[in-house]
């Protein structure tokens, strides 16, 4: 078995951290404590059975054959048979026990990490790359699964086997044991430590080059149209070959490491047989050991070499599992920064949504994304936010809906600070409708119901009806029970947006926060989505991050955000008269219109 | 492919045979040493030194066997991957349209790994087989009865290992499937976090994750049950062999039919047989999986590129004026039942420029794609300077006809190399001149390392407008007879577009150009405008003429304008 794990220097834990991870894991595995004790007990028994085999061979050789006693030989045979049977049964049980405990542990870990992840604020998801979060929950935990399936068992069993074998050898003949250890320990110790280091480095190198090579491969495939358009196939191939050959070279370096190690171990194994025969034979001639002891040593030598090889290969895997656990625990320790107040109050049914001098700075940046902005939205009023990309209009929308908490200042609804209210009641009043209709696996109905898990089928239908699109979805062969398939590939972009609007209709909030889609739909669908949106907005306060002038024109008031500040606020006509940023923008738009 | 590696494979086989010979010798030597030197009066030093020498030999061959096996298998993998890549680069665009990137990626990665995993087993299994046969012969020659009894359980090792591989495979697949489902839930919850936060829908996703986590545990425990049924049995069988040697062999020694050294030798030989026999079962299972992977790889390799060079290609006439383009009653559709162009007829004289205007999805970009033979027309002929483009070499056609696409694909390389994409040997001065013309030089010069700044998916990221300017520079440097600008300035800030317009005018001067655009300023750059409607040319004229006379033209233009994003304008 070739170790699959490797660990980079920055991931390597020091002793104190390793201890902490271990203690925490033991604590986390509390529900499985009895299974774990049971498994450890079984491992001890099965290892003892493995070691016992050669002992009975020795007994049979010395007392049966050596003393010409058929009875002693038969005793040895029966004892061996019993040991083998015990080893087999215990082997099965230990395997099951360790897997039950391990898989249960991983299940709990998955759930705990995920729950913690979900409790984090939007800011957390902005800070952390989606890919990294997903791989924590998948690759990191899965790699531990491999360890649990066979590694942990082997790790413990190999250690035990090594210790038991040495003790047994020492009991049989301390002279021979000393001689074997004097040769084996330095050679194997030195070689294994070196191998463990080199293979770790080689594996990391391979992993990196695999990544680069896959990157080039992917670039070639996704860029194939440009490559063909400019006749660059040969050049691109040449570049791929160079990274592919670098990967090959890296593989060879890694093979070289294992090559010398396995060769050396083979040499040391046979050399120790030679030593046992030579020195053991000498001791037999002098009557200080029996021949059976020498034979048992020859057979027991395998028990020394195999575990050392296994341990040195598993070492990296165990270390990288500890590093993964460390990261996962770190994720579990991250305190959610937009948390519910311990004694939350309910929001009033209606009220004004007000930002009081809010400032917001993203973690890791110095300049605030939004600086001292005060703005309010009355019930039923429509407010459009415009401004250049990155000026802070989306940030303001997120603060108003408490996806973030402001760094200073506060947001209130009906004169209640939104940080004091229960998240559930806030989400009933203020709903954020994302740019594009994101779909989860499941049916159309499931996807709408995500907004209010308790809603009945009739309520879901009502929500669709409220925005005037029920018929459109009922036309599908399976109606609302149509599976949307991965990422909604069966629904068009427009239909996905309609699902998103229906979700909001199902909640029936007082305030809608919209981030207008920047991507274009075909004109037919566009009109349907527009109509549905219009019906959804009716009678509600709306804050829209606008990208199109047609949307801006329909707003009651317009706020222009530039460089993190609210620079203009008023109606379309007022702002035009003011002759500032908004006026310039409206003019630029008019200029680029075709002169009809 | 394998023929080139014949040398390496033969070396691997020879080393493997020598390895088996050395391995088989050790128990024999041990047995002789026991009987002659420990129990007899031979020289201990001589016999143990002999074993010591064999240790060096066996160690050396162990290393070499491993080395050759892995080297050759990695080489096979490496070469196959290169062959696959070269082929993928040549496959027609329609193939790529309906093949997911992930599919091709896994052909060139995980499938090749499975093949490699099997190739490495070939020399190793061959030498294992040689060793197994040698041991069986030795044991039978010495003590036929004992050999029969001791070896009896061992074939079951092979049976068990084969069965195990077969039974564990679906169990492992089930685990992977459940893991993939959990990954989907996590992935959706992370990418859809806005929806979940917006509606406070944590409970729903948490419940889904719990289900998936339970499923993984359950199938994993199932897989563990399969393993627990087989793995301890693999340990059991050789022990039964050893037991037989002790029981039957012990009595034979007592009866004087066998020496004690021979008994030890038997035990050692049985120990040697364990791994090769287990391996054999694995090899069979690996072979089956590798065969399936090879089939999938071959499916890609045996797909012939549908757009390829003509058997006896013609060349473009070299004498000026060049750049005449003719779409001669062309029809085309991406699928047979949905024609995009119908009897499309357009003739552009050398050096002229034409703007193609039409509704989104109306086939404008298709015109561009047909002209560089991303697809072949279903009816009619496209000619460049009087030659049917299907009669040209692809390399020549695409050297003389360049397209600047709407979404610019940048490679993970320096800015300079990205500009010099079509002409990797271009001088730095030429690259800079092209970048100046496209209005890219100023921002490139302000990048941390200027033209050497590494960009692309894994490098410095550029804005849409900056990317398009690089694409324009790319086309300028290519210096083609015919240039197609497919919405090539859509992401450029309109307030800056006039700067590029100057550049475009220079580039278009005296060069046949097809402009696909939706901003009136850009459309007006062209000598004539063609309105593409319902797959054919609905009207031709100058921009002003069409605006004044054609109702449909005004409609289409207004719809295109409405799509335009205003963000860029605000920041101007």
Mind explaining what this structure looks like?
The complex is a heterodimer of chains A (596) and B (572). Helix content of chain A is 65%, strand content 9%. Chain A is of the alpha/beta class and 596 residues long. In chain A, helix 16 links the parallel strand 7 and strand 8. Chain B folds into three domains: 164 residues, ABC transporter type 1, transmembrane domain (ABC transporter transmembrane region fold); 114 residues; 247 residues, Rossmann fold, CATH 3.40.50. Helix content of chain B is 64%, strand content 11%. In chain B, helix 1 runs antiparallel to helix 2 and helix 2 packs antiparallel against helix 4. The interface between A and B is large, with 153 and 152 residues.
* Mean pLDDT over all positions of chain B: 86
Question: What's the count of strands of chain B?
Answer: 10
Which CATH C-level class of the largest domain in chain A is it? Answer: Alpha Beta
Instruction: Work out the count of structural domains of chain B.
Output: 3
The CATH architecture designation of the largest domain in chain B is 3-Layer(aba) Sandwich
Low-confidence stretches of chain A: none
Largest interface: A-B, 153 and 152 residues
| Contiguous runs where pLDDT drops below 50 for at least 5 residues of chain B | 565-572
**Name given to the CATH architecture of the largest domain in chain A:** 3-Layer(aba) Sandwich
Domain count of chain A:
3
- Helical residue percent of chain A? 55-70%
Strand arrangement within the widest β-sheet of chain A reads: 6-7-8-3-9-10
| Widest sheet, order of strands of chain B | 6-7-8-3-9-10
The secondary structure category of chain A is alpha/beta
**Structural class based on helices, strands and sheet pairing of chain B:** alpha/beta
User: For this entry, what is the oligomeric state of its chains?
Assistant: heterodimer
> What sequence of helices (H) and strands (E) makes up the elements of chain A?
HHHHHHHHHEEEHEEHEHHHHEHEHEEHH
Percent range of helical residues of chain B: 55-70%
